Amino acid sequence: MDANTPDRPCSGLSAEETGKVLVAADGDPDEVYAVPELSPLVGALREASADECLTAEQMRAIADEHLASLSHHWPTTTVPDDAAECARVDLVVGGSVQVTVYGPGAAG
Could you tell me which of 19, 27, 61 has the C-alpha nearest to residue 44? Predict the structure, then answer.
């Protein structure tokens, strides 16, 4: 049970496929796993990628700008991918934040 909503379970089960049981968070994963300190970073990356097609370096600059306010983060990694039209970002969140930007050197 979730302490905030004691009458609702914090996870759900699905056994739709023989031999497999899926255990997942009950509710929107964005809300269940939200880290308030990361909201500005996540919001800026979502807004930037929705507004226009950015290069890996442009997206990295946005990530680095917002990571500067966080005390625990790894250096941002950029993986060149000239086959991609636009940059994309992966976040790994644990005790610290790891940001990896994949994308082209020039916007498509």
Answer: 61
Tokens 């994963």 identify what position? 29
Place of tokens 């700008």: 65
Q: What is the pLDDT of residue 106?
A: 80
Q: Which of 61, 108, 60, 66 is nearest to 88 (CA)?
A: 60
SS3 18: coil
Query: Which CA distances in Å does 14 have to 1, 10, 34, 89, 103?
Result: 18, 14, 23, 30, 36
For residue 1, name the pLDDT band (cuts at 50, 70, 90).
very low
Which is it for strands 77-80 and 97-103: parallel, antiparallel or unpaired?
parallel
Q: Structure pTM? A: 0.69
Rounded to the nearest 5°, which phi and psi values hold at 91? -115, 130
